[in-house]
Design goal:
Blueprint (H helix, E strand, L loop, with lengths): L14 E12 L2 E11 L11 E14 L4 E14 L4 E13 L9
Antiparallel strand pairs: 1-2, 2-3, 3-4, 4-5
């Protein structure tokens, strides 16, 4: 295939993984925690701004108000290291609101 010839061969073997946990500490409250990392070896064939390592973590708190409505907040924090050694970091806070509509199907 022609488009495959345009890609540079990457010799690096990515390694990483994630760990996650969820705890329902009350019937209507759930806390979740996720963390992860992916690492590539240094590779001179890659551009200096290509990713070398990325790490992230999230902490979420959700309340199930009733059978249809839930809402909560999440804090996420991520770091990225480039092949040249530059690092960037980004925190984020997001809110969520979910309403589940009930669908009743009548076969009559």
């Amino acid at each position: 295939m022609r488009f495959l010839e345009d890609f540079v061969r990457i010799v690096a073997d990515p390694q990483g993984g994630y760990l996650a946990g969820q705890w329902r500490f009350r019937p209507d409250w759930t806390l979740a925690l996720v963390g992860g990392e992916i690492t590539l070896e240094n590779d001179r064939d890659l551009p200096a701004d290509a990713m070398r390592r990325t790490r992230y973590g999230t902490l979420s708190l959700v309340r199930q108000h009733d059978d249809h409505l839930s809402y909560g907040a999440e804090f996420a924090y991520g770091m990225r290291d480039n092949q040249a050694g530059d690092r960037s970091e980004a925190p984020r806070v997001q809110l969520n609101l979910t309403y589940r509509f009930e669908h009743n199907r009548s076969d009559g």
